[in-house]
Design brief:
Layout (H helix, E strand, L loop, with lengths): L2 H9 L3 H19 L2 E11 L25 H13 L4 E6 L7 H14 L3 E5 L5 H10 L3 E3 L7 H7 L10 H11 L2 E8 L6 H14 L3 E6 L23 H14 L9 H6 L4 H7 L4 E2 L25 H14 L3 E2 L7 H17 L1
Parallel strand pairs: 1-2, 1-7, 1-8, 2-3, 3-4, 4-5, 5-6
Helix pairs in contact: 1-8, 1-9, 2-9, 4-5, 5-7, 8-9
Length: 356
């Protein structure tokens, strides 16, 4: 798919014409990753963050936000729930917080891997190569780090760097792939200052990075952040809509047919009745039910009014299962690695055997 075709689909708003895009994305999804929907149990282990990202409700400048860090035993209780519900993966997510030391996370990962059949995904912000390699050695399977936008100027605006440190998330993702991680990344759709050209380059970046997982969500402004108070009415500004997010999701499936693509909670926040279902019909094959204890969920406020923050883990599990089955799809079993990652791992193993 060339750049001009991506732009055309991003700008297309005719519902009848878009049925072709939805059908193509759904067919490619079915042919390459099948009809199973894999469940990733999300554990938001803490909301402390040293970064001052302009769009994020967890940013360090928010003095009004009640902060928390879950204890090891609380985290492991959530992991036990993931096993009980038959999930294949747990996602350990937090703000960029040095209190989550290399040793703590490494020991936690090692315990999960030794005691359960679960795959472990980490989403802990920008971390050093030494930390990342140590966590991989401890058994971590995947790392999720959104590059957010391929527009460097816009990235620097929404992600002010730490003193003396300039982010290069694409390079970090490629290094993690070399370490053996399944790599996940993605973007926000409709962030102030984002153009259709930017979004087309984002889609092309998914393919160039050969991502194993692509996370997409509409930008939902937080009123207590700098970007949340910005004007987003530029002449070529992308709208932060559910509809445009589906178009990006479908295009992501077409350019990365072997990737895992979640239908995200941000879509459900905009359309609680059927946002996740529509995502699953337009290219997605993963959902992420929340295992975070109820008392912490409202504090993990990346954006306001997030879907499902009042539900229990059991309610989330039952709801997700029911929604998947209503589409005639089945709940996946096992870790649900991307076919692309599985093929690369087999090839690497074969190459290593030949070398020996």
């Amino acid at each position: 798919m060339d750049h001009a075709e991506i732009i055309r689909w991003l700008r297309e708003e005719d519902p009848e014409i878009l049925t072709e895009l939805w059908a193509r994305a759904d067919e490619v999804r079915r042919d390459n990753v099948g009809d199973q929907v894999h469940l990733r149990g999300l554990i938001e282990i803490g909301n402390h963050c040293v970064r001052r990202c302009g769009y994020c409700g967890l940013n360090a400048s928010r003095s009004d936000l009640q902060r928390y860090r879950m204890s090891r035993s609380e985290i492991l209780d959530c992991v036990a729930q993931a096993v009980e519900y038959g999930y294949g993966t747990v996602v350990i997510q937090a703000g960029e917080d040095p209190a989550w030391t290399a040793e703590f996370i490494g020991d936690l990962v090692a315990e999960i891997k030794s005691a359960t059949p679960l795959a472990v995904t980490l989403s802990l912000g920008e971390r050093s190569d030494e930390e990342l390699a140590g966590w991989r050695s401890a058994g971590a399977d995947r790392f999720l780090l959104r590059f957010e936008t391929s527009n460097r100027r816009l990235f620097d605006h929404i992600h002010p760097p730490l003193p003396g440190k300039r982010s290069d998330r694409e390079a970090m993702l490629l290094r993690m792939a070399d370490m053996g991680y399944e790599i996940g990344s993605g973007v926000m759709v409709g962030i102030p200052g984002q153009t259709y050209e930017d979004l087309a380059r984002d889609v092309e970046t998914f393919a160039r990075l050969d991502l194993d997982m692509i996370g997409l969500g509409p930008y939902i402004p937080h009123p207590d952040t700098p970007v949340g108070r910005e004007d987003s009415s530029g002449p070529d500004q992308t709208p932060a809509t559910e509809e445009l997010t589906y178009r990006v999701m479908a295009l992501a499936r077409l350019v990365c047919p072997l990737s895992n693509i979640p239908s995200t909670s941000a879509l459900a926040t905009l359309n609680l009745a059927e946002g996740r279902e529509l995502g699953l019909l337009r290219g997605a094959n993963v959902v992420m039910p929340n295992l975070t204890p109820q008392q912490y969920r409202p504090m993990y406020e990346i954006y306001p009014s997030k879907a499902c923050i009042r539900e229990t883990a059991q309610q989330c599990h039952s709801c997700m299962t029911r929604r998947i089955e209503s589409l005639g799809r089945s709940v996946g079993s096992g870790p649900g690695s991307s076919p692309g990652y599985t093929a690369r791992s087999i090839k690497a193993s074969g190459d290593a055997t030949c070398v020996r």
